[in-house]
Amino acid sequence: MALDLMTNAETGQKIVDYLTVQEPRRGVGTFNPDPPRQFSYTPGTPRDFTIEDASLRFTAPRLTINGKLDESSTRNNGEVAGAAVWFYVPNRGRFVFSLAPHRSLGFRKAGEVRGSLLTFTINCANSSAPSDTAFNLYVLQDRSWKPTYAFADLSAISMGASDRAESLVAQ
Questions:
Q1: Fewer CB within 10 Å, N- or C-terminus of the chain?
Q2: Is the pTM of this model over 0.70?
């Protein structure tokens, strides 16, 4: 939540404090503790990704669908990073995220990334993008995609990344 503390009437410049509420850490003192949660929020107008910007990174993401935490996402404490990052969500398929438009590959502008908060019209996830700028988020959904690697758990959320969006899209 953004709290405006002071505003300069002449310039419109503000001093803002950001209040965040997070779930308590679970697993403290066990062999598999939750990593410390990081939060950042980047104000301003989102802009398209450029080559000078770094890749997306998801670290122990938590997925919320229609305002409800998907419990299977709490089992994923991994990290992925790349120019294109994907999530497989059971019964919803794979979502490929990019900060670059890739319209020719079928990506559509569907959300934004502000610091560690990634939102799009279908779901939410914890993520991070480079620098202190808000970025447009482009999403490609493949409803029929399922993990095909050995011992894949089709009932759990999984994720991955690539340095090129083209390598994740069947052409």
A1: C
A2: no
